[in-house]
Amino acid sequence: MNLNEQIKKLVEEQEQYIIDCRHKLHAIPEVCSKEVKTKAFLMEEIKKSGLPYEEVPTNSIIVKLDTGRPGKVVALRADIDGLPVKESDENLTRPRACKSEHDGYCHACGHDAHMAMLLGALKVLPQLKDQLSGTVLFCFEEGEEQGTGVDALLAALEKYHVDRCWGIHVYADLAENKMSVDAGPRMAGSAVTTATFKGKGGHGSRPDMARNPVFAAAAFLNNLSMVFGQKITAGQTVTLGITMVHAGEASNVIADTAELSGSFRFFDGEEGKKAVRLFRKTAEETAAIFGCTVEFGPRTTPEAVGFPVINDAAAAALAQRVLPEVLPEGTIVSCEPWYASESFRKWLAKYPGVFAFLGIKNEEEGFGALHHNEKFDLNDKVLKTGALATVRYAAEWLIQE
């Protein structure tokens, strides 16, 4: 039996295990850096493998499969945190196959699927050890939604001298069981935008005796939208996502401050930095008109801009070549970049690799609600596709020596 047939057979044997893992993890969602039950479940499965592991503060884990022969080091990653979203009892059309047991929290982004697929690969790749050279690192990353775990995990990986990396994200805007491994920018860079306008409070009946920061903030929003229309480079896109405004507590009291925040998303890092500079300059000049001042959040600087997720061209080409050997014809497709952002950008800035999209959209069957939505759900049958792709990608790098 050749390697491709072995991979298909072994993943087939683990499919129900992968599904069971997804259901168990789906039931216990936990938010960034508080993934205690999630980590406990992962550790139980990891210990069953007999492979050595390293716990990275606070909840990330690295598991090492060393073939005993020199070769490349391939890191495979899954994120483990959930979201503070109350899950609906049904998806778009029907009751869910599995339900969160933590009220007010759920896996509304698919990280339960990512963990389950990587656990499946953790079952399969050791069975191929005698045919491979090098090392596989199975990496479970805490706190992806807020980026709280990625830096510590990457620091812990330094000693392993990683050559290639791989990650998967299920994607609600791609047809079910299709997969995209395109080269180049795949997910957007981001900038956090927070501005606090400071004025002078007073009685609502005498605005002339106060300096109302509400008007400054409101004028700033209008000005910023005009500036974006005139100053963002033609042919580039920076989305203007101001999502929160807060000022005052009473109808007859002029507040001292007005705060607004949101984010920008983009696929060109320099344009993202430019957008932040425009945000700051427009806020400062608008505040001055109203006799106010403005202060910015610590992440609202050009230096803090997060760059896009960019797939390495050679790694993407390899994936496009070898994944069809284990996946049904027509599974690998191209799709447009996704405007959400991801901490895996930091992996791809350090190591050549691929961040794959695994499609879950099937609205007739109830799958396809947007990410971070209470009705977000996916069909368990996509898990086999993701596990097959993960194992085949890793194996290709490890049989090159």
Word description of this protein:
The protein is of the alpha+beta class and 401 residues long. The protein has helices spanning 3-26, 36-49, 111-124, 150-157, 213-231, 269-289, 313-322, 344-350, 382-398; strands at 53-56, 60-66, 73-79, 135-141, 164-175, 179-180, 184-187, 189-198, 202-203, 238-247, 253-254, 257-266, 293-296, 309-311, 353-361. A 7-stranded mixed beta sheet has the order 1-2-4-3-5-15-6, sandwiched between helices. A 4-stranded antiparallel beta sheet has the order 10-12-8-13, with helices on one face. It has a two-stranded antiparallel sheet with strand order 7-14.
Assembly annotation: single chain
The profile of the biggest β sheet is:
7 strands, mixed
Question: What does the average pLDDT come to?
Answer: 97
One letter per element, helices H and strands E, the order comes to: HHEEEHEHEEEEEHEEEHEEHHEH
Low-confidence stretches: none
Number of strands: 15
Q: What general form does the structure show? A: elongated
**Backbone structural class:** alpha+beta
Distance between the termini: 21 Å
Strand arrangement within the widest β-sheet reads 1-2-4-3-5-15-6
Q: How large is the radius of gyration? A: 24 Å
Helix residue percentage: 25-40%
Strand content: 15-25%
Provide a count of the helices. Answer: 9
